[in-house]
TrEMBL record, chain A:
Protein name, entry field: DUF3857 domain-containing protein
Keywords, alphabetical: Signal
Secretion signal, residue range per the UniProt entry: 1-19
Keyword Signal: yes
One Pfam family, short name: DUF3857
Residues annotated as domain DUF3857: 69-196
Keyword Heme on entry: no
UniProtKB/TrEMBL annotation, chain B:
Signal peptide: 1-19
Protein name: Transglutaminase-like putative cysteine protease
GO molecular function: peptidase activity
Chain ranges of the DUF3857 domain: 52-215
Pfam families: DUF3857, Transglut_core
Transglutaminase-like domain span: 275-346
GO terms (BP aspect): proteolysis
Key words of the record: Hydrolase, Protease, Signal
Amino acid sequence: MRRMLLCWSLCVLSLAVRAQDKPVKFGVINSTDLEMKAYPADSSAEALLLYDYGETEFVIVSNEICIRFTYHGRIKIFKKSAYEKATVSIRYHTGSHRYAESVTNVKGFTYNLENGVIKKESLNKDMIFNERSSDTHSTQRFTLPNVKEGSVVEYSYQVLTPLSYYHNPKTWTFQGSMPVAWSEYRITIPNSLYYRMIMSGYLPLHISENKPINIDLAHFGTQGMAYRFVVKDAPAFQNEPYITTPGDYVSKVDFELARINIPGTVTKNYSISWNDLNSTLLSSELLGGQISRTSFMKDIAKKIQAQAADTTAQLEAAVKYIQQQVKWNGYTSIYSKNLKKILETREGDSGDINLLLIALLREMGYDANPLVLSTRQNGRLDTTYAMLKQFNNVVAHLDLERKDVLLDATDEFLKLGMVPTYCLNQAGWLVHRTKARFVPIRPTESDREFEKAELIIGEDGELKGTFTKSYGGYSGWSAKKTLKTEGPDKFLEAIQKENPSWSITKHDFKNYNELNQSMDATYELSMTDYVTQAGNMLYLRPMLSEGYAQNPLKADTRAYPVDYGHPIEEVFVATYQVPAGYAVVEHPKTAVVTLPDNAGRFMYVVNVADNKVTVTSRVVIRKTIHFAEEYSALKMFYDQIIAKHNEQIVLKKGN
Amino acid sequence: MMRFCLLGTLLTLSLTTFAQSYSSFSIPLALRENAHAVIRYQETEFYVKDAGEAVTRIKGAVTILDEKGEMYATLVIPYNKFTKINDFEAQLYDSKGDRVKRIKRSDMESFTANSGANVIDDSYVKAAVLKHQYYPYTVAYAYEYTTRNMMFYPNWKAYPYNAAGTAVEKNTFRVSVPAGLELRYHEQNLPSPVAKGQAGGRSTYTWEVKDLRPVQTESYAPALDLLLPRVLTGPAEFEVEKYKGKLSTWKDVGTFYRELNQGRQALPPALVSTLQEQTRSLNSPVGKAQKLYEYLQANTRYVSIQLGIGGWQSMRAEEVAVKGYGDCKALTNYMGAMLQAVGVKSYPALVRAGEDEDDIRTEFPSFQFNHVILCLPAGQDTLWLECTSQNNAFGYLGSFTSDRHVVLITEDGGYLVKTPQYQPLDNLQHRQALVKLAENGEATIQMKTKYTGLQQDERAGVLHHLGADDQKKWIQKSLSLPSAEVQQFVLKENRDRIPSVEESLSLFVRNACNRSGTRIFLNPNLLNQATSVPLAGSVRKNDFVLAQHYTDLDSIAFEIPANYAIEHLPEATKVLSRYGSYEASVQVTGTTLTYVRRVVMHKGRYPAAEYPAWVEFNKKVLRADKNQIVLVQK
């Protein structure tokens, strides 16, 4: 029960067939909805989606097969803060007719109860606006009249999408920012089109039906299946920190075209099994095609091979070459239109850059292949179903002595074999002619910080000495990036800002250009904030400002896992020289706190020897994903660290 | 014929006419220092054809030195139905000055300039990106567009975008007006004044700057808009669509706005009688106004509609009555019409709204506004109404429109007046708490805090916009405690003229104090610690600005565990300055320690020379906020 995510597959859908009318008729309202003062299941809701209805059909319009989506929504407004729900935007694609979407049949009503009488006002033409959003998209906006606290607003519209523009019905979500009393989705699919249909989320289906149905769709045939799904009383979706993306947790149904099979013509397979997906990608001109022609990299490949001796040096040189030749534009994709051209324009997305890297590595004689993946923001990879649209990023994969090695040339601060944090999303699919498979994406590095202080305690409470912070692994990755983009002055300024009482007299940044080493920041300084002076006593806060002061997990409970992406290691070692005449009269005791299953460990030790006090703190979080039921233990773990980190050392002047 | 020729020549000017070197190496070293980009040259011409039309021509080249200067690689031209882009060309050069790429108008992409879901707008931008893999590189551009909204003349900046980290080799601004039209302008911090000329029956005005080093931002400094050299220009007479206006005085501003919006106050007769009925029993104009304001808040909502004459003509009041929504102009006009219906006088007031917006340039009458509010003039008791808010307390403006110049739109034109400023005691955070400490560092806290004026804005927002669960989460997040559980909370609002929110909390806290061996260490300022001080840095160049008057009062009582005695109490601290004052002390009564803290701060702009003193003040406050109490086992 670790993974609480429910996945329903199509085969378990009930076969009960009942003729079903829409339970809510457009334009007809009952007064109980208007009289409702609050939603009993969630009294704090600012609005309630009373009815959320979507219907997808396939139709032929001007000889083009199209997806027709009909929407009907009815919203109860409880609070003024929900007024914006009465303004609706529908974005659609524009262009030549085979690619242009259209929005039609926009209708709407606002219902108010005035002195016990239902007042119904309609959405008029002058409340509908059409706006060009870009060269390829427009937006239809409308805003319903006379919305007040207590109003019910209702609207419906249709969007027609030619299959030649986009062949997958839009994802239907049963949950949103407001609670939904009734969410219903219907879709009728001709048998000639085979869609992979995937449901995910935490909410149960109240109704799930399908039945064969007669359709009239020209050469797309006369037989189809009609599906109906209903989720009742869906609570508002709650977002939380440290999750990959809300999309991983919200209840939804998603579609991907797997096969077109028109009687009398050729059957066209998209992806259906992982092997199919693999061949689809291999035969795609945008992916497999690009990396099959690599001769344009011959010269540079030879040059790198001649210059770099061993494998590591060669790989580093190849990544560096691509990284310097092509600037990453900040976008991810799994495709490239033309690798050769990218080398000329020198800017591209991750698809361009990493496929180019694969091409170069291949030309150098390596069996480099694309590993397609889904970034954390894009959502968890569902390995049960081969859905192409899950993937939004690609890195280069090499098998080096039976070890999976991943390379990414989009970022100059990545050590060889390290992928950016946003790629740390469990697994990817290795696109390969013979050895295609899932490859786990394990962080090769943790987020490592090592701090070392050597300080002399002055009788006046001032601390003087040196402080060094080493940024390793992912911490080094981001620190080097910051230092380079912001410059050393800004970096120092930020440190100064975090520690107002530090007077830094000298600073030194080391290894900020070394990918394979931690970056070191060393400061010579004096500090005034950490010792309280009281008569013949001195109280020292030995963790300086480096300890935990507040629990990073603020909420009392948690619905979804805490996902850090990578392990974390934070070490702090400080040595203090006690002023002459003073002795340590009391100091914190050694403590060790562990999380179950070795998921995390905290160790804290204070050592007193002669006139020196050494404080060591080590926090390690080894496990990257902590499930909701482990949340309270994790939170408590931080509380115990805080308690220890805030203990103080008492010094007393002798005689 | 003359005009045609002139236009003709200008149109054929292409980038290549300026046969200058785009090599990045010819930039003077002094300009490169601390720069992310260098404007090699820029020429802006505003060519006024007549009172109703002008052509803007911009030519220039910018060398981008690093990633932070890359904003200049994106060329953006805003347009709407009053603007027509006639011509565009841009080129990309590498560091040696060799051309890499060239684009034309057809290579540009269009986007909506619409910023939000609740906005209906018809402004767009055309944009093109010219980036190169290697720095430095140079982008050269030339474009031209025609404007038919002549309410606005250019606001020319010596540093384009007033951006920090940009150097300027040369930047020129020229306005050309035909005989019979007057140009009005306002120069700000310019190294040299305008050069005027006459040619072909036209007057020209030219400003030029050369070799400007990049500016560095300083925290707490006034906005660069106020500091850097720029020229505001404006017409004395103008036309937009079928409207003609004068624009030399604030009076003119008011007259034009009034004309543009005249005859839009009529209300449906049924509504008029309802309003009269509802307010009949109320005698004072203020009482009637309050009643109608409540009606407005209950029956309308704000939808931003940036259509009409450049977004300056309001929807009719009748229309608002039917639809129940409108933008600031429409809702203000509607409220004014309702007040009129019950015999209460009011005037719209044009304002530049926004917490971080600078005041308008009062010495240069022009349309410097982005918002409208309503004013009910009554001398000392003048009332101001924000008509777009469904939640504002009656007569409260908040940080959005308070303490700034506005132009009242009256029967005899516009008048420059100021909206009220909220004083330190208006913006109060008054907190009282009882903390019961346990030996293990856990504590229960009963806490009551009253927030008023500008200090209540955020919590009032939370109260109005979030549901109970989210309110609780927000409160939990806002607490600067080590680890707190909100066991109970109540947020209560009081909609006085200076509104307030009362927050009552019951908390359970871990690590409220820290036990080390036989001692307990307690920071009595658990809840309201200063966390950062402004950086001292090197020599301060600019004045510094404190944005708000406010007062914080804390009185926190601690019940300490019985078996502990006091080993150390911090001394009372008092820090006085002209920016504000700080006092903190701990008093002992039996087993109860009471920590009292009082901070009063003053809004204002203070001279650069005093910056070190202000930093020092902050350091003392920060230090005092960290003072701790030490208890020891008996």
